[in-house]
């Protein structure tokens, strides 16, 4: 029986075209119609990936403001919602102000009524919003999800010109930027100035093609059926979207009005174009392959500049879409588009023609095989192919080239496919086998693996069995018998596929001494064809002479399709940045992509995780590079000539510049990207620039223009390490880098935050590389610096690991009671606190204080410093009595020994004030906190951690005193500052967000408070985990604010009721309240002598930033 021919390529891969009319602000109507179509289309699909118009349509064309939309949807690849927002903002910006009310000047020359510079600025804003530059070319040579063109009109010839995002054969295209194309298509006469591009001047395309449907038709024919011009059989779905019918107005008798208005409307009227086109495409309309959507009523009085009538446009469009007849047409359009499986190839016409031929063959064979046909007893054609058809195969046009050569001449065809291992040669040959079977059902097809002689001999035996060849003598060669059989004309049509024909010795005399090489066993017949797949171009030319097809590297679009077809979780591809990184790392190699997808599926990873693993497997990458860069590698660039060039270049650099060599070695030991020049070994500016210039001349490093940082090529980075290892210098270089980074690691203050963040990955890298080395003092210091940075950045868990390692090394080098051990232990306390491990925080702080007391005595600076830190921990954990008790010991000591201007004293003032948050002495503490906040803000600035901590404490005091607006102002300032510097998921940011939500809740702003607390909960889950105490606290708050309330709990909604309850609750927790009752609550608080003393000292302080800085340095030293 004949095989099934399958679905027509028209149904699955036919052309989907989109045409967009011009119409000024009414273009919003087009976008709303498109939004309805895309929303329903995505809802109808089972795939979770949300499609954009550029994913569905093969070609998008537009004119005037429709051209603007076409660029946004096609070239900028925006979603419809994103496009609507950008389009409405652009229209309002451009049409909000007229610069000329009369369209002509006194000399009769036409002048623009609107500002063309404002239009250009608005377009540039849209382009930059999506991450591109206005100077980027419309056609930059890169593959796109869809082809895009816009219509513009030459001012000189009045001919319509198409500006494209893609090349067209046999036509010289005008090189234009995205911004120039957008301006040219929308430069409507009377409204904007004409646009100059090179020596040409353009006005908008509406004069020649306000409805560009005929331009879309002609353009599609230029691309997909250049010779035949028969476009209709190739079109699966053609969608034309208008901007609403214009009002029917009589012709003006006034000459000025006739020239400026009536004549323009006659020139751009799209309805006549629509009628003529629908008459020609009437069969496609009936076949539900052409759809025209255009609002019939409601937009007649909306002028193209009436941006303020957005609500009118929306209402008329929604009414149009909800009409029963339009609902049916939209549904038919979606049903058509939903069957589209992939982008349309250039050779669609050939595919449809071949499918028609297969269908005709199939019908004939079905008729021949009917039971009453006396000739239906013929045996089916032989089929020896060991693999099933690959349902994930992505067409690369190679199969079409092969099919065009098969059986094209009256002689035996020999064709070789060669390419890098893993490039997809076997899959191409497999698809060829199945398509040949469909195209020629009478063709016998045999697959022979040429990996080695044994497997090939077994394959020949299977072929002989299928052909009915019997071996009368065991000494007979099966290969010779198969050759003789296939060479007979009576055998009929056949196809031989030799897969993996990589060893040339198998095809020459050296492998088969008695009868010659395998080439002598190839059959010859004008009804046969032989296809070889090989990694060797030498083998390909030996076997097929000039009939050689090289499989080129996949482009990004097709590689993405391979990845998509191989992944179980398609939504992973939403991370487009990681998708591009992964494909780039794998050099778009199909086999590597499939293997990566298999690993991701099995381990449930994200694409970013896999990229990290791929980047982290240095040893395997170095091993790959060390294999003399042969083709065994899966990276296209790793070849022997490259390795030779690099090794030679290393030696040349070594001879020319010692500093450049040092830089090369230094960079190879840290991360290859984002390298600060300040981290490199010091040298004069001239010598430094010469060394970097030398490395750049060999393309080993690239210096960024925007921030002067260095990036090294990843493979050069690995090859350099491999080279250092081969000459036994890698270990020495890594130790030198460890010392250098310790010396040159930037200070952790606000002014150096960008440099610190850039230095952390490099420091972590060298710490990781030297982890097996003997203990070294520089390692301890660098661990402390990096761990401190991790604490500041909110990565407390990473800091815990670093501090733990530093303590272990410091104990080995200096003993358990050394300064470095205590520094690491203090840092470990901070890391515990940052993770919310309060029990560990308190316990370790108490142990430190006890050890310092034993080592240095109760009145030493070391002991007081430990007690000061312990008092802060007690205060944070709400153990205020113990905190104040320690403060009574520490503060007089610090006032006496360090003075009021020391950093430690300022921190202690904040801590002391905070310990009175729930105390009757709140009024005095408020004054002290306010003074402390002022000092910290003056000395350290508003973004310093001390200032933010004082700000938070003052906010809490205001909250407890029910000064809610002042509390909100402080919490908001601190929260916004922290969020801007460290991000929304920093622990301190989350804490400030929580306090701000409480403040809003106390003001009765329930919705805002719940929204903020919900965000707190989300961030907390991400930072701490689902079962952490801090996460549970946020959840309990959220639950209490949102759950069903009793009558008494509803009373708490009243701000004054909550205030009274809060005051009584906090005061009722004191011991004396239980003894004296309400009488104690109403008593005036007694003044604390120590607190009053501190207040008086602070009042008399006058500290400059420089003076405090010197004091801090002295204290820390």
TrEMBL record:
Gene Ontology biological-process entries: glycerolipid metabolic process; lipid catabolic process
Active site per the UniProt annotation: 64, 204
Superkingdom of this protein's organism: Eukaryota
Pfam families assigned: NB-ARC, Patatin, TPR_12
Motif DGA/G: positions: 204-206
Organism (species): Penicillium cf. griseofulvum
Alphabetical list of InterPro entries matching this protein: Acyl_Trfase/lysoPLipase, NB-ARC, NLR-like, P-loop_NTPase, PNPLA_dom, TPR-like_helical_dom_sf
Residues spanned by motif GXGXXG: 22-27
Annotated CDD domains: Pat17_PNPLA8_PNPLA9_like3
Protein name: Acyl transferase/acyl hydrolase/lysophospholipase
Motif GXSXG per record, residues: 62-66
Keywords: Hydrolase, Lipid degradation, Lipid metabolism, Transferase
GO molecular function: ADP binding; hydrolase activity; transferase activity
Annotated ranges, domain PNPLA: 18-217
Coiled-coil positions: none
SUPFAM superfamilies for this protein: FabD/lysophospholipase-like (SSF52151), P-loop containing nucleoside triphosphate hydrolases (SSF52540), TPR-like (SSF48452)
């Amino acid at each position: 029986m004949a095989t099934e021919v399958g679905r027509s390529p028209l149904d699955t891969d036919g052309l989907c075209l989109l045409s967009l009319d011009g119409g000024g602000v009414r273009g919003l109507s087009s976008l709303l119609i498109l939004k309805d179509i895309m929303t329903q289309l995505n809802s109808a699909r089972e795939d979770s990936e949300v499609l954009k118009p550029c994913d569905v349509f093969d070609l998008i064309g537009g004119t005037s403001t429709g051209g603007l939309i076409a660029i946004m949807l096609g070239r900028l690849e925006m979603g419809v919602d994103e496009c609507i927002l950008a389009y409405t903002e652009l229209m309002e910006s451009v049409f909000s102000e007229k610069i000329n009310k009369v369209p002509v000047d006194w000399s009769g020359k036409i002048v623009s009524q609107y500002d063309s510079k404002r239009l250009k600025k608005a377009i540039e804003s849209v382009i930059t919003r999506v991450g591109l530059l206005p100077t980027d070319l419309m056609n930059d040579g890169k593959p796109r999800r869809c082809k895009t063109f816009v219509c513009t009109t030459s001012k000189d010839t009045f001919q319509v010109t198409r500006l494209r995002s893609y090349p067209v054969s046999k036509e010289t295209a005008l090189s234009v930027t995205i911004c120039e194309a957008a301006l040219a298509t929308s430069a409507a006469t009377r409204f904007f100035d004409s646009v100059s591009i090179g020596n040409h001047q353009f006005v908008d395309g509406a004069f020649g093609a306000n409805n560009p449907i005929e331009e879309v038709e002609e353009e599609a024919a230029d691309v997909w059926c250049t010779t035949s011009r028969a476009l209709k059989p190739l079109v699966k779905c053609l969608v034309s979207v208008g901007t609403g019918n214009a009002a029917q107005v009589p012709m003006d008798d006034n000459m000025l009005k006739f020239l400026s208005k009536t004549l323009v409307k006659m020139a751009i009227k799209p309805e006549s174009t629509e009628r003529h086109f629908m008459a020609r495409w009437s069969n496609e309309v009936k076949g539900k392959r052409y759809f025209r959507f255009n609002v019939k009523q409601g937009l007649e009085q909306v002028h193209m500049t009436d941006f303020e009538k957005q609500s009118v446009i929306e209402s008329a469009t929604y009414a149009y879409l909800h009409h029963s007849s339009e609902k049916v047409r939209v549904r038919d359009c979606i049903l058509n588009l939903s069957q589209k499986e992939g982008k349309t190839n250039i050779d669609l016409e050939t595919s449809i023609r071949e499918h028609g031929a297969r269908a005709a063959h199939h019908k004939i064979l079905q008729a021949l095989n009917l039971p009453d046909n006396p000739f239906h007893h013929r045996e089916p054609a032989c089929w020896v192919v060991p693999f099933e058809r690959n349902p994930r195969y992505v067409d690369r046009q190679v199969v079409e080239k092969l099919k065009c050569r098969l059986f094209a001449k009256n002689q035996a065809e020999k064709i070789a496919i060669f390419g890098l291992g893993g490039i997809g040669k076997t899959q191409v040959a497999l698809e060829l086998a199945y398509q040949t079977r469909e195209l020629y059902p009478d063709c016998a097809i045999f697959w022979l693996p040429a990996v080695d002689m044994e497997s090939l001999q077994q394959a020949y035996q299977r072929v002989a069995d299928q052909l009915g060849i019997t071996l009368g003598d065991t000494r007979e060669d099966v290969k010779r018998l198969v050759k003789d059989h296939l060479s007979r004309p009576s055998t009929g049509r056949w196809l031989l596929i030799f897969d993996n024909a990589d060893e040339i010795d198998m095809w020459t005399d050296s492998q088969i001494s008695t009868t010659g090489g395998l080439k002598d066993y190839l059959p010859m017949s004008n009804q046969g064809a032989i296809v070889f797949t090989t990694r060797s171009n030498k083998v390909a030319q030996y076997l097929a002479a000039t009939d050689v097809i090289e499989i080129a590297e996949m482009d990004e679009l097709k590689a993405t399709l391979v990845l998509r077809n191989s992944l179980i979780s398609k939504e992973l591809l939403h991370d487009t940045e990681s998708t591009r990184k992964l494909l780039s790392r794998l050099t778009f190699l199909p086999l590597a992509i499939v293997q990566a997808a298999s690993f991701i599926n099995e381990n449930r990873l994200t694409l970013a995780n896999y990229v990290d693993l791929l980047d982290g497997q240095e040893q395997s990458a170095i091993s790959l590079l060390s294999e003399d860069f042969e083709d065994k590698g899966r990276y296209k660039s790793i070849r022997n000539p490259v390795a030779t060039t690099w090794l030679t270049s290393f030696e040349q650099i070594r001879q020319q510049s010692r500093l450049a060599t040092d830089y090369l070695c230094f960079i190879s030991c840290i991360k290859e990207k984002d390298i600060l020049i300040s981290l490199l070994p010091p040298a004069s500016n001239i010598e430094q620039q010469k060394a970097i210039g030398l490395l750049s001349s060999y393309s080993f490093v690239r210096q960024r223009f925007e921030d002067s940082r260095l990036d090294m090529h990843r493979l050069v980075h690995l090859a350099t390490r491999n080279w250092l290892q081969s000459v036994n210098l890698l270990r020495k270089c890594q130790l030198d880098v460890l010392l250098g980074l310790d010396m040159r690691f930037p200070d952790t203050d606000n002014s150096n935050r960008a440099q610190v963040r850039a230095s952390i990955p490099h420091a972590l890298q060298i710490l990781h590389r030297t982890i097996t080395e003997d203990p070294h003092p520089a390692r301890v210091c660098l661990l402390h610096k990096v761990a401190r940075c991790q604490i500041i950045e909110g990565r407390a868990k990473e800091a815990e690991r670093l501090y733990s390692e530093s303590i272990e090394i410091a104990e080995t080098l200096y003993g358990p009671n050394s300064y470095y051990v205590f520094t690491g232990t203090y840092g470990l306390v901070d890391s515990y606190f940052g993770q919310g491990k309060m029990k560990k925080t308190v316990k370790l702080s108490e142990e430190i204080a006890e050890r310092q007391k034993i080592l240095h005595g109760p009145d030493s600076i070391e002991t007081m410093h430990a007690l000061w830190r312990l008092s802060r921990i007690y205060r944070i954990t709400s153990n205020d009595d113990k905190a104040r008790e320690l403060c009574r010991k520490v503060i007089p000591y610090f006032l006496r020994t360090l003075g009021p201007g020391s950093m430690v004293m300022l921190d202690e003032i904040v801590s002391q004030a905070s310990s009175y948050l729930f105390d009757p002495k709140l009024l005095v503490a408020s004054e002290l906190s306010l003074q402390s906040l002022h000092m910290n803000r003056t000395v350290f600035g508003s973004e310093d951690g001390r200032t933010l901590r004082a700000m938070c404490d003052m906010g809490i005091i205001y909250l407890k005193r029910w000064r809610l607006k002042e509390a909100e102002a402080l919490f908001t300032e601190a929260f916004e500052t922290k969020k801007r510097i460290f991000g929304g998921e920093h622990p301190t940011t989350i804490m400030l967000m929580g306090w701000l939500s409480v403040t809003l809740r106390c003001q009765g702003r329930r919705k805002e408070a719940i929204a903020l607390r919900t965000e707190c909960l989300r961030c907390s889950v991400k930072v701490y985990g689902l079962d952490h105490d801090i996460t549970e606290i946020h959840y309990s708050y959220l639950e209490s604010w949102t759950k069903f309330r009793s009558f008494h709990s509803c009373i708490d909604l009243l701000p004054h009721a909550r205030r009274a309850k809060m005051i009584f609750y906090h005061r009722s927790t004191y011991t004396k309240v239980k003894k004296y009752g309400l009488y104690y609550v109403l008593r005036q608080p007694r003044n604390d002598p120590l607190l009053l003393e501190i207040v008086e000292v602070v009042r008399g302080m006058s500290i400059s930033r420089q003076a405090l800085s010197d004091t801090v340095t002295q204290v820390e030293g």
